[in-house]
Design a protein that fits this description.
alpha+beta, Beta-lactamase
Length: 341
């Protein structure tokens, strides 16, 4: 796994995460389908002084959306769901305003559904679940705009997708992920965490700065909503996920390519989002990527399927460093001569 690029990547990471005694990060770099860098920095659990390793499991926040999208697409591939089905076919509790919202609208954030984080009572003491998101949305009389009219990033949409997966499959969302994605791919330590049902092994806990000290900041009242951000995984397992995607293992190549394709609004205007992936271009090749940010955690994943390139940075502390670092590493791998060694 040694690479001539290792020293410079190491220096990039150290610049962002200099202290081994602080919460840190785990960094994975795959190029041309081979792991060229895999290393963890800092502490996964400050209270017990447990260092981060490539097997440390982070709550990956919105990076989870690619797994929710895949779960949905597995059912599409099996003919159980159509991308153009009205979501009321599966979620009849939703009022009339949802009749014209399709599964596709949820996947590419063009549904117009309101953000549940703006709707719930901030005085609650019991964490929200995906089913609670549905109740909040069922109480609305309208969306924010007509389906397909705009792009507006929606955590609500992905919570609803998790519920659709449950109702169509007859399994809990977390169980469906386990059976249909994690086990086939070999992601043996990954989990959509459900308190009282599952556990997270080798768990990283989240932190944020409070003055000059690190403060434990691991959960919020929305952290238990699974579809939009409740998955825990590690570098080791994410490398297996990348491998499965490159091998087009879980769904048909055509459907996977559609997931990597920018959606369009009703008037034909393209948007930079597919199904669970943000869509861009780098080095003349299609780039699919996503960030994830939640209480105590920040992450960024960039992939260029044509190149077999994947850069993943998972971090258990608040800040923009992972997003900056992932782009910096990606640019360097694509053009090593751009920076001095």
């Amino acid at each position: 796994m040694t690479s001539p690029l290792t020293p410079r990547i190491e220096a990039m990471v150290r610049e962002k995460f200099p202290l081994e005694s602080d919460p840190g990060c785990s960094v994975l770099v795959i190029d041309r389908g081979k792991v060229i860098f895999e290393k963890s920095y800092g502490v996964a659990n400050l209270e017990d002084n447990i260092p981060a390793t490539p097997e440390t499991n982070y709550r990956i926040a919105s990076v989870s959306k690619q797994f929710t999208a895949m779960a949905t697409l597995i059912l599409v591939d099996k003919g159980r769901i159509s991308l153009d089905d009205s979501i009321r076919k599966f979620l009849p509790e939703l009022p009339d305003y949802a009749e014209l919202i399709t599964v596709r609208h949820l996947l590419n954030h063009t549904s117009g559904i309101k953000d549940y984080e703006d709707l719930y009572d901030k005085n609650i003491t019991t964490p929200l679940l995906d089913a609670d998101v549905l109740k909040l949305l069922a109480a609305q009389s309208a969306g924010d705009f007509k389906p397909g009219e705009k792009y507006s990033y929606s955590n609500s949409g992905y919570a609803l997708l998790a519920l659709i997966v449950e109702r169509v499959s007859g399994k809990r969302y977390a169980q469906f992920l386990h059976d249909e994605i994690f086990v086939p791919v070999g992601m043996t330590n990954s989990v959509a965490f459900e308190k009282g049902i599952s556990e997270v092994s080798d768990r990283a806990y989240g932190y944020e700065r409070d003055g000059g000290e690190w403060k434990f900041a691991d959960q919020s009242m929305t952290s238990s909503v699974l579809g939009d951000g409740g998955i825990y995984t590690s570098l080791r397992d994410y490398a297996k996920w990348d491998h499965a995607l490159r091998r087009k293992k879980l769904i048909s190549p055509a459907l996977l390519e559609e997931a990597y394709t920018a959606g369009k609004l009703n008037d034909g205007t393209p948007i930079k989002y597919g199904y669970g992936w943000k869509i861009d271009e780098k080095g003349g090749m299609k780039e699919v990527w996503h960030t994830g940010s939640t209480t105590g955690f920040n992450h960024s994943v960039h992939r260029i399927p044509e190149r077999g390139l994947c850069v993943a940075v998972f971090s258990n502390c608040v800040g923009e460093a992972p997003a900056q670092l992932a782009v910096q590493i990606e640019d360097y791998v694509l053009n090593p001569k751009s920076l001095p060694h």
